[in-house]
Amino acid sequence: MPAYDDLMAFQRTTEALAQVAGRTGWDQETMMPVGAAPQRAEEMAALEEVLHARRTDPRIGDWLEEAHAPDAAADANLRDIRRSYDRNHKVPARLASELARVTSLAQGQWATARASEDAASFAPVLAEVVRLRQEEGAALAAGTNRDAYDALMQDYEPGGNAADMAAMFDKMRPRLRALRERALGATPAPTVAGRFSAVQQIALSEEVAAAYGYDMMRGRLDTAVHPFSSGSGTDVRITTRVDENDPFNCLFSTVHEVGHASYEQGVDAAYLLTPIGRGVSMGVHESQSRSYENQMARSEAYCGWLFGRMRDVFGDIGVTSERDFYRAVNSVGSGYIRTEADEVNYNLHVMLRFDLERGLILGDLDVADLEGAWNDRFASDFGFAVDKPSNGFMQDVHWSVGLMGYFPTYSLGNLFAGCLMAAARRDVPGIDDALAQGDPSPATGWMRANLQRYGALREPTETIRHATGEDPSAEPLLAYLEAKFGDLYP
Question: Does the annotation flag 466 for ligand binding?
Answer without folding.
Answer: no
